[in-house]
Design brief:
about 325 residues; alpha/beta; Rossmann fold; about 45% helix
Length: about 325
């Protein structure tokens, strides 16, 4: 039967992977694409899991949200650096009971959507999975993971379980959580050290971080600082969770976090959502986070220097701009 019309906003690894898995299971999924549009139109969307390749041969793809029209679910998978564009992208997709599910990284994404479209619409999912977009309309899963799914500002609702059941039927591992905010902080325990150190240490993968005693020790310290900020907010994350995350990272092998991939490709990095927000929250509560403050400072310097170098380079001929009313997905908008 299916759970209704689903729009996926964002054509990076997260959006392609979860959208394709749902579509392959028979759900009515519509992809808003830009850079991958031609590739998906010609070759479909490919999902690689080791030697197993799943092929969504004829995905429903669009360049403009208005061409999709109202849906029952919007999966938001753009980078948080493109959140401002959601004000124009999302409205053509809305009807009275449309739910907005953000699968983005970092903090503040649910708050942003709630401020624009109402808290009652907003859900969140934390993707504990190793995904890389390895080519146009191609995503590779380096480690089967899970989505921790919850409601923004309230306990799970019937729709939470409806989506969880559909995703489970698609072969995905879903964990319904009572506290979405606590789940976000748990994800931050991994995101903050490994996404950040992979950039500042010179484009290194997670395996290299763990092999280097200094980087591994720094990763553990950053995890502890994130855990202390979460504790100040009332979210209890045991030290055993840090060890669990380190062990899961060990079996990832030479995995390159999404922030590193964005940085190396010259795309914007989610500095504020992943590192800036926990820094500010810790500072406001009086929780000392010296290593996190330093990492945040270095990432701002490195990414701003990269942006400055790109701005001074000769500009390529831009695409013809479309009016905001057409709600076209920005080129920089990619997965969480």
């Amino acid at each position: 039967m299916g759970i209704g019309r689903i729009a996926v906003v964002g054509s990076g690894a997260i959006g392609l992977y979860y959208g394709a898995r749902l579509a392959l299971a028979g759900e009515d999924v519509h992809f808003l694409l830009r850079s991958d549009y031609e590739a998906a139109q010609t070759n479909g969307i490919r999902v690689v899991n080791g030697r197993d390749v799943q092929h969504l041969a004829s995905p429903r793809i669009y360049r403009y949200a208005k061409d999709i029209g109202p849906v029952d679910w919007v999966i938001v998978a753009v980078k948080s650096t493109s959140n401002a564009a959601l004000r124009d992208i999302v409205p053509p997709l809305l009807q009275r009971n449309t739910s907005l599910l953000t699968l983005q990284n970092g903090l503040g994404n649910e708050e942003h959507l709630a401020g624009l479209f109402g808290q009652e619409r907003v859900m969140g999912g934390l993707c504990f999975v190793c995904l890389n977009r390895t080519g146009p309309a191609v995503v590779e899963n380096f480690g089967h993971g899970s989505i921790h799914l919850g409601e923004y500002g309230r306990l799970p609702q019937p729709r939470t379980h409806t989506f969880a059941q559909a995703a489970t039927a698609a072969g995905l591992h879903i964990v319904v959580v009572n506290s979405l905010r606590e789940a976000r902080w748990r994800k931050q325990v991994w995101n903050v050290p490994f996404n950040g150190l992979s950039i500042v240490a010179g484009s290194v993968d997670v395996h290299q971080i763990l092999l280097d005693p200094g980087l591994r020790s720094l990763a553990a310290t950053l995890m502890e600082e994130v855990r202390m900020v979460a504790a100040g907010l009332g979210y209890r994350i045991d030290t055993s969770f840090q060890e669990e995350m380190l062990e899961k990272t060990r079996v990832m092998g030479p995995y390159r976090p999404s922030s590193l991939i964005d940085f190396d490709a010259g795309r914007p990095v989610e500095v504020e959502a992943i590192w800036g927000e926990p820094c500010r929250i810790g500072r406001n509560m009086g929780v000392p986070v010296p290593r996190l403050e330093m990492l945040y400072y270095l990432l701002k310097k490195i990414t701003s220097a990269r942006a400055g170098a790109a701005a001074s380079a000769p500009a390529a001929t831009p695409d013809t701009a479309s009016p905001a009313a057409t709600a076209r997905l920005p080129a920089a908008a990619r997965e969480a």
